[in-house]
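Researcher: Next sequence.
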Amino acid sequence: MTEAVPKLRPSRGLGELLRLAWPVVLSRLGIMTMGLTDAIVVGRYSSEELAFHALGWAPTSVLLTTAVGLLMGVQVMTARLIGAGRPQEVGAVLRRGISYSLQIGLVSVLVLVLAGPWGMHRIGIEPDLADGASAALIVFSLSLPMYLVSVACQFFLEGLERPTPGMNAMWVANGVNLALNLWLVPGLSGLPVDGAVASAWATFFARASLAVFLVVYIWRMGDARALGVFNRESGRPEDAREQRKVGYAAGASYCVEVSAFAALTLVAGLLGSLGVAAWTVVLNVSAMVFMVPLGLSAATGVLVSNAYGRGDPAGVQRAGWTGVAVVGVLAFVIALVVWPAAGWISSAYTREPAVLAVAAAGLALATLFFVADALQVVAAQALRSAADVWWPTLMHLFSYGVVMVPLGYALAVALDQGVAGLVWACIIASLISAALLCGRFRRVSRRRLQTPRIQPSSVST
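Model: Next structure:
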């Protein structure tokens, strides 16, 4: 029996982008829903435990997001090889991705367990706050290897333009996470854990279920053999180098951005428990909104990579600018919805009037950067997919590292603007990043994409 392999397709536009984007968006929303579930359940149990949760998650998120970026080459190279007419070689991309994910995950665990609690107690946070956050941090770190395996599998499926299984798996994992949170956090289990640490254990088991589901699904795909999933060959050296190159650049970019936001969380720690809790609400909701443009950026990246692989400069431009236009409209609509509902949304996190007042005001203000943040993430992914991998990293370093963090400290602490000061720093940095990245994609898509870096070969059937 001959197994089918993905067929080359002509340049595609809005319809294909939306077809790919909606399951990816729901999958990314599932990622944040897991964190949102943790924050809501823990926050309604105790605002102090919510502060432990937020501070314990912050350093973990730096390594996690950086690791996700390091695996971005799985998605880009899978789509690029499909576009180049070499589907039988994408299995090597997946195998490299899983190998990278396990190595990166184990190193991350060691770094966080050994250095995380030490760092918590040496950055000026109150000792009791640092103790609670350290316990949650250690448990969060243990789930990283499994989660990164699931990321590699999701990126592989998205590169094949099959994002629906990843979406389904993510929401099954969310069900597991919610059930365990409701059982463990209030102490109903009778186990010697509750609060933030119990929520971290719920995340651990949810991520394990996600990884198992996706590995089994790929193993049982009807065309897995035709895609080279079971081959032992390591693939072409130049493909491996390009996969690592994309990963290094995306990982560095993600590290800069998430480190900057984690730094703002630490700045919020200088504002006290109320400031941390209110900032956590603003950051969680903003991150949830960000999953929509993040999902659209993945879909845009797949289409740009596919066009780049088949040597189609016009297709690269069309896919990139279609993604930018669609995400700008969607982000604007979301901002219009969130702005008047900021108080109601914030009330889902906390019952304490003081925290609620600060969080609601901060969230209403945060809607000002939704559009700019959406534009910059799509433009950055379009650039990486078109093999311009290092410019997004440099632009993120400037916008978020050089501008946002010092400005956030100055406004929030030195000028005593509190959480509002942190939000204004995000607004200014996102506007700068969006302008720089969209301008760069305009230049790259017009002047540099004349020939593909991967030459097509005949398709095996």
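Model: DSSP finds 16 helices and no strands in the chain. The radius of gyration is 21 Å.
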